[in-house]
Amino acid sequence: xxxxxxxxxxxxxxxxxxxxxxxxxxxxxxxxxxxxxxxxxxxxxxxxxxxxxxxxxxxxxxxxxxxxxxxxxxxxxxxxxxxxxxxxxxxxxxxxxxxxxxxxxxxxxxxxxxxxxxxxxxxxxxxxxxxxxxxxxxxxxxxxxxxxxxxxxxxxxxxxxxxxxxxxxxxxxxxxxxxxxxxxxxxxxxxxxxxxxxxxxx
Length: 202
What we know:
This protein has a single domain, classed as de novo design (two linked rop proteins) (Up-down Bundle), CATH 1.20.1440. Helix content is 86%, strand content 2%. The protein is built from 5 helices and 2 strands. The chain has a two-stranded antiparallel ribbon with strand order 1-2. Strand 1 and strand 2 form a beta hairpin. Helix 3 runs antiparallel to helix 4. 15% of the residues are buried.
């Protein structure tokens, strides 16, 4: 009897120990699964944050590239506009008295073509009203070329400070408005590029 009782006690202890080990293993497995799920969620969240930062950074870079291109094109257009203004005024000063040579007239045509090319590239960054100011300058240059063409053979037919059907005052007004518009349009993006955030990122 005693021996059988002791055997039962050992068996119970073994079973109890086995159950405890299994329970511990299950508990460990569950804890491990929970930790794995938590870690997976953290990694996924970090990945999402990283992707959002990359997308935002790429978007900012594209925006900065657009702004830089806009500034470059409009500043080039402004420079060409000033060159055109100086050359045409210089021709208007001398044409009625000394006439102009065919080479000097060809220079006017070349400068007009240069302005037209710069205008075409710059206008994609401007609205319709702003574009109109550039067209108005172009129109007055077309008239002026027809006017200056007469000065090649008959300078006496050319009036002083005249640009075809337009006088010096209208010529200056057209250029002043176009130049002011370009200055204002370039100032804002330049200021944006020079903000502390952009300077820091660069």
